[in-house]
Amino acid sequence: MSHNSFGHLFRVTTWGESHGPAIGCVVDGTPPGTVLSEPMIQRFLDERRPGQSRYTTQRQEPDAVRILSGTMPGERDGELVATGTPIALEIQNVDQRSKDYGDIARRYRPGHADITYDMKYGVRDHRGGGRSSARETATRVAAGAIARQIVPGLVVRGALVQIGDVAIERSRFDWAETRNNPFFCPDAETAERWAELLDSVRKRGSSIGAVVEVVAEGVPVGLGAPLYGKLDADIAAGLMSINAVKGVEIGDGFLSATLSGEENADEIRMGDDGTPLFLTNHAGGILGGIATGQPVVSRFAVKPTSSILTPRRSVDADGQEVDVMTKGRHDPCVGIRAVPIGEAMVACAIADHYLRHRGQTGRS
Ligand SMILES: Cc1cc2nc3c(=O)[nH]c(=O)nc-3n(C[C@H](O)[C@H](O)[C@H](O)COP(=O)(O)O)c2cc1C
């Protein structure tokens, strides 16, 4: 089962599965001298960690990261400096309950990857979904923390902007608010509505989809490349690779189809500092695959969790028709914990393009 790597010059290879002893990744390409520390990476893992509110799965994984290679002690206490060699990161799996998954050893959960893994490989670790489990995404978040250190001035932030058909009110968007509620919601009033909505979804043993928005600021002008090296294509690929993601937009995305050319044009003037100034950002900070210097705006749709308590029709590995109901602990809305994962994938794509840009132009 190959294809476990993402990126070119900043290249992340992840390993491990839900119910093995540990998961981890190897981050290759971190420039020598980059300053890191375990607490700096841990901070982002803590945002994705399960069991932090009643709206996420009650699995208790501390997700404590350990750096195994690629660094040496820095000048300050606890500080590490990248040597430029591969950085291996490890996270122990501690809260597995493999018996929860006995029922699906031979039955395929509708909406999950069980059936395609079996049809393709003929072998499948059903415990917790094995490699198809979103447990793997913890390692991406760790890699994303390193990526953020590579691009000077880069700030990547994510927010949940819609659950089911309840979207935030744009005029109330406040990044600070994303830290005040369990949904990464930038709008306090909508967060209250979501709490009610999710309580009812949870009580029914059902699940619900969501939309996540990720905004990267401080992306240097010129990052990206035409055609097959488009920055937006690589961001989209990174986001689409996250479990349960079914749609990605850059800038106005699908809304662009409804705009006229006049409305969609991001007009340009000369700014006071003598550089071009874009008056709007329908393009989401990327033109021709190349960063304009504006915020890079992406959005992705996450489908409802397939683990639900209502039986659904399916088949088993012997070709028998069966009903499947998924027991065990699950997130009623996986979009919530997808927020830090989306941030990480955007940060990794930008760090990769930062190094590629430097390689091709000699400039940062
Ligand atoms: C943070 C996160 C947690 C997830 N937890 C679950 C879960 O508990 N149960 C489940 O059925 N799917 C869960 N998923 C989604 C599955 O991993 C995903 O649907 C499955 O691998 C099939 O892949 P696909 O949906 O991308 O086609 C989760 C996804 C994310 C992003």
TrEMBL record:
UniProt keyword list: Amino-acid biosynthesis, Aromatic amino acid biosynthesis, FAD, Flavoprotein, FMN, Lyase, NADP
One GO process term, biological-process aspect: chorismate biosynthetic process
Positions annotated to bind NADP(+): R48, R54
Binding site for FMN: R131, S132, S133, N243, A244, G288, K303, P304, T305, S306, S307, R329
Pathway annotation from the record: Metabolic intermediate biosynthesis; chorismate biosynthesis; chorismate from D-erythrose 4-phosphate and phosphoenolpyruvate: step 7/7
Gene Ontology CC entries for this record: cytosol
Ranges in a coiled coil: none
Keyword Lyase: yes
The keyword Flavoprotein belongs to this UniProt entry's keyword annotation: yes
UniProt EC number: 4.2.3.5
Function: This reaction introduces a second double bond into the aromatic ring system.
UniProt subunit comment: Homotetramer.
Protein name as catalogued: Chorismate synthase
Organism: Aureimonas pseudogalii
Phylogenetic classification of the source organism: Bacteria, Pseudomonadati, Pseudomonadota, Alphaproteobacteria, Hyphomicrobiales
